[in-house]
Amino acid sequence: MKQEHLSDDELQQLALEQEVPGQQWEAHIQQCAKCATAIADYRAMFAALSAMEKPVFNLDMEIQILSKLPVVTTAKRPASHLPMWLGIAAITMAGITVWVMGNYFKELLKGVDSMMLCLLVATAITITVLQCREMLATYRKKMELLKFYQKTAT
Amino acid sequence: MLPGLIKRMHFNHRHISEDQYLVNQVLKGNQQAFASIVRQTEGLVVQIVFKMIPAAGDRQDIVQDVYLKAFSSLAAFKFQSKLSTWVGKIAYNSCLHYLEKKKLMFLPGADEQENGLDQLNKHQELFQHSAEKALSQKELAAILTTAVRMLSPPVYQTLIILYHQEELSYAEIGEITSLPEGTVKNYLFRARKALRQQILSGYKKEDL
Hints:
The complex is a heterodimer. Chain A is mainly alpha-helical. Chain A is 73% helix and 0% strand. Chain A has 2 domains: 8-51, no CATH class; 82-153. Chain A has helices at 8-15, 23-31, 33-51, 61-68, 82-109, 114-153. Chain B folds into 2 domains: 3-101, RNA polymerase sigma factor, region 2, helix turn helix motif (Rna Polymerase Sigma Factor, Chain: A), CATH 1.10.1740.10; 110-207, Arc Repressor Mutant, subunit A, CATH 1.10.10. Chain B is built from 10 helices and no strands. Chains A and B meet through helix 1, helix 3, helix 4 and helix 6 of A and helix 1, helix 3, helix 4, helix 7 and helix 8 of B. Chain A: The chain crosses the membrane at residues 82-102, 114-132.
C-alpha cells in the first residue's frame, strides 16, 4: 500500500478518470478517508460544473447574424468562350507541329519497337490528362474563392 | 483508454467531412449552411464572450462581429482543426481585441469581485447550516457559478468552462487560446485546486 497521500494532480486525474488507479493507489484510497473524500469532492465538483447553467441571449442570435451577412449577388455573367478558343488554338498548334516536324519524328522513332511506342504514347497521354485534370481542379477552386470574395465585397 | 479521454479525442473524419460540406455550401452562397454553422457553434462562442466580456451590453455586438469575421474569412479555413474550434479561436481573439481596445484587463471588475465574495460567503454560511446533509448537484452548481467567477487570473475561468462545460480537449482549448497544451493542463489543474479550496474553505477546513 502507498503510505503517503496522493498528490492533488493524482487526485484530479483519478476523479476525471484519466488515470487508472494502480493496485497500490487503490489500496491506499480504500484505507485513506482523506484521499477518498478528496476524489469524491472533485467528482462532485466536476459533475456540478457540467450541470452549471449555460449563458444565453434573450434574442435569437441566428436571425440577428444572418440579417447582418453581406448580400450575395446572384447575377450571372455571360458564359466566356475563352476556354473553347484556347482549346482550338492548342489543337491547331499541335497539328502544325506534327505536320512541320513529321519527318523528324519519323526519323526519331525509326527502329523503335511498336510495343514500346504504344507504351510511350499511352504514358504521355496519361500524364497529360492527369496534369490537365489537376490544373482544372485548381482553376475551379481558385475561381470559387474569387467569386466568394467578389460576393462578400459587394 | 478511458471513456472521458476517448470522448474528448473524438475528432474523426465525420467532423471533417461535415465541416467541409458546410464550408463548401457557404462558399457557394448558401446562407442556410452558415445558419447551421451558427447553430453548431453558438454555445461555445456565447460561453467565451460571457466569460471574457464584463459589459453585458457589448456582448451581443461581439458575437455578431465574431460571425461576420468567420463568414468573411471562411474561404481561408484550412480544415486543420474542427470548424467549431476555429470559430472559438476567432471569438477568443475578438474578445482579447475588444479588451485591448477598451484598455480593460481580462479581470472581473472590483464591484463584481466584491459581489462575488459576498455571494460566496452567503453560500458558505448556507453550507455550514447544512453541512451534515449532502449537497444537491443544483446547489453545488449555484455555488460553483460564483466560485468560478472569483477565479484569478481570469483565463482560468475560460479554461474551466471550455473543459468542463463545453467538453473540449486540452488540444482544442490550446488551439482556441493559443496556449501550449501543457500550459492548458497546468492552468486547469491550478484552477480546479483553487475552486475546491474556495468551496471548502468556509466549512470543511480539515479536508484541505
